[in-house]
Write a structure and sequence with these properties.
355 residues, mainly alpha, two-stranded antiparallel ribbon
Length: 355
């Protein structure tokens, strides 16, 4: 129309020239909320299935929880795939979860996780999908349950699992089940015997997940404690070094947060190391790194409480560490600057987080 003459436009209006309409779409750039720098807590409440970090008692344990869940999938010979739209092989083979955080494909016996999930979401979603996989696969009687009851079972399985390991998904579970069951009405309408059977099977599926995860955690804990025993219980001085190293790490974290200088715990650590060789210190440092979980600006010890108590008792046999206040500053040989120590610790933490 924009190229038509005045006379042609008049004839089109009078119907003397045939015309038609066609819809065009302009190409533009759009972003999903997780691709922006908007804080998760400020996502709009109506954002569908928004990603979030659940509160967790032991963040350093999250990788073991996912490992425990994946061991269940391995036992079921069930691949667990994280969807990546930039990976052509995955994109061509698997359906994009889009707003869903994951799904269980009963036909192919596979679980696909959303690549935008947070670490706590990966645990809760994987537990949910493994609930489906255990209760609603093609061999199970409950495969023919209505969809809303299947979703309730899977979400209850996830909630019980997460609650067992200190992940708070309560509100998410309430909202999810309420949306699928009309606030529980569809479940309450069932005969008592059917309701009991549904909940019993949820308990059974949850026990399978927690039992396998407990085994993974126990096995990993044994490895960590063995490292600690071999390096920090062999002599009182090494026990003393371990506990002082923890104090220094905590001081570094605290002072990095408030911007002040640190040196008291570092000085005490250097005092312990005076009689040690470089190889000995390097070995202790390596063992310490392997027994810690680095969470951005904080460190979580992975050594069991019982073994830490043994380390504390053992270090009492060593010579006490002289505090900085009691050291003559003129005689203290400062071998490494505060900033170099900070940088070395940042690099090591970054390497551990990357690993």
């Amino acid at each position: 129309m924009k190229n038509a003459t005045k006379e042609e436009k008049q004839q089109i209006r009078e119907g003397n020239i045939d015309s038609y309409q066609k819809t065009f779409y302009k190409i533009g750039t759009v972003f999903d909320a997780p691709q922006t720098n908007m804080p998760k807590e400020k996502y709009p409440e109506l954002y569908p299935n928004r990603h979030q970090d659940f509160a967790v008692k032991n963040p350093g344990q999250l990788d073991l929880l996912e490992k425990g869940l994946r061991s269940v999938a391995d036992d079921m010979q069930m691949p667990v795939v994280t969807y990546n739209p930039f990976d052509a092989e995955i994109r061509d083979k698997y359906k994009d979860p889009q707003n869903a955080k994951g799904y269980f494909n009963r036909a192919t016996n596979e679980i696909v996780l959303n690549g935008n999930n947070t670490p706590t979401e990966n645990v809760s979603v994987l537990a949910h999908e493994l609930g489906h996989a255990q209760l609603h696969n093609s061999q199970k009687q409950e495969k023919d349950l209505p969809r809303e009851l299947k979703e309730m079972q899977a979400e209850l399985t996830s909630y019980l699992y997460c609650s067992h390991f200190g992940i708070d998904t309560k509100q998410e579970t309430i909202d999810y089940i309420a949306s699928w069951t009309s606030n529980g009405q569809k479940f309450n309408e069932l005969p008592n015997g059917v309701k009991g059977q549904i909940l019993t099977h949820v308990g059974s599926a949850t026990r399978t997940l927690t039992t396998n995860t407990d085994k993974v955690i126990e096995k990993e804990q044994d490895k960590i404690d063995q490292i600690a025993k071999e390096n920090f219980l062999d002599t009182p001085e090494h026990s003393q070094w371990y506990l002082q190293k923890e104090k220094m790490e905590q001081e570094v974290s605290n002072n990095e947060n408030n911007g002040t200088n640190f040196k008291s715990e570092l000085t005490a650590l250097r005092k312990i190391e005076d009689s040690m060789s470089r190889d000995e210190i390097r070995k202790l440092d390596n063992a310490f790194t392997r027994t810690q979980s680095w969470q951005l600006d904080n460190t979580y010890s992975r050594v069991s409480n019982e073994l830490r108590d043994e380390i504390k008792e053992n270090q009492k046999k060593a010579e006490p560490v002289v505090s900085e206040e009691k050291i003559n500053h003129a005689t203290v040989k400062k071998t490494v600057s505060d900033e170099k120590v900070r940088e070395a610790i940042r690099q090591r933490r970054g390497q551990e987080l990357d690993r």
